[in-house]
Amino acid sequence: MKHVIALDVGGTGMKAALLAQDGSVLFEARRPTGRERGTDAVVAAVLGFAADLADEGRSRFGCPPLAAGVAVPGTIDEKNGIAVFSANLGWRDLPMRKLLGERLGGPDGTAVPIALGHDVRSGGLAEGRLGAGRGVDRFLFIALGTGIAGAIGIGGRIEAGAHGYGGEIGHVVVRPGGPACGCGARGCLETLASASAVSRAWAERSGDPAADAAACAVAVDAGDKRAIEVWQNAVDALADGIVLAQSLLDPATVIVGGGLAEAGDTLFTPLRAAVAERLTFQMPPKVVPAMLKDTAASLGAGLLAWDLLSMEVTA
């Protein structure tokens, strides 16, 4: 059976699959990234995992993968296949496409086609084609994790922008003069509505240094007034960011994923209400939870690989 390798390289773990052309998963596997052993070990782990996946495909289906897609965090140069920078994984200007292509190549030295994608944009692509955005022409995908990132979906593809930074809704300033952000600005959305921001606020308010966003959500459901205030502050900031995006992009659907979205209705009920309250002339978007959970980026990487093959055929 024809298949491609789909690989998502995270800060602590890697998720992978062998993906058929229709997006169905033929095989899944996970491994630790091993970043505690240093950058060279991480790169070796990525290349080794990809090679093992190729062997798995040959064993199961009697043929090698047609291509591979890899999604990575940080800054990337998709056009040239370079992982430019990742603070978590420690690499700079890593020629990921070249390295993977050579590692997966045949005995005649022919390199396998490699697609490189940003992890959140790859996740957005998968949500758009296979998940909560399926059949939606224009959507915004927002990932609420340690930070906040996003992806703009248009016509079945993700708009990366002129410089590869499209969808960075986490760095939209929603509270001018607010908390300092790692990007250098103040009051960015991710300083107020990310899982880490909620964790910090709840730990301070509750007096428990170990308290996190999940604990805050539980306290909200229990009616704790302090937790409700912390939660609502985050919801209000997120709603402001969504309305700003609605004015600029006019998506039909806003898909919210990441760890904070695991709170379910505790997040989505007040968030939908807060967005509706802020809209004036804008058409209201549907605000829905992501469907693919932590497999989205790997699935998106596989879709990028199939897209690459399609482009090569039509070129």
Essential attributes:
315 residues; 13 strands; alpha/beta; five-stranded mixed sheet; 40% helix
The number of helices is 9
Strand content: 15-25%
Rg computed from alpha carbons, rounded to a whole number of angstroms: 20 Å
Largest sheet: 5 strands, mixed
Mean pLDDT: 94
In short:
With 315 residues, the protein is α/β, with parallel strands linked by helices.
Give a structural overview:
It is a single chain. By secondary structure, this protein is of the alpha/beta class. Helices cover 40% and strands 21% of the residues. The chain is built from nine helices and 13 strands. It has a five-stranded mixed beta sheet with strand order 3-2-1-4-8, sandwiched between helices. Strands 11-10-9-12-13 form a five-stranded mixed beta sheet, sandwiched between helices. Strands 5-6-7 form a three-stranded antiparallel beta sheet, with no helix packed on it. A hairpin with a 2-residue loop joins strand 10 and strand 11. It is globular and about 65 Å long.
Task: Please outline the helices and strands.
Elements: E1 4-9, E2 13-19, E3 25-32, H1 39-61, E4 68-72, E5 75-77, E6 82-85, E7 92-94, H2 96-104, E8 114-118, H3 119-130, E9 138-144, E10 148-154, E11 157-159, H4 190-193, H5 195-206, H6 213-221, H7 225-249, E12 253-257, H8 265-278, E13 286-289, H9 296-314
Parallel strand pairs: 1-4, 4-8, 9-12, 12-13
Antiparallel strand pairs: 1-2, 2-3, 5-6, 6-7, 9-10, 10-11
Helix pairs in contact: 1-2, 3-9, 5-6, 5-7, 6-7, 7-8
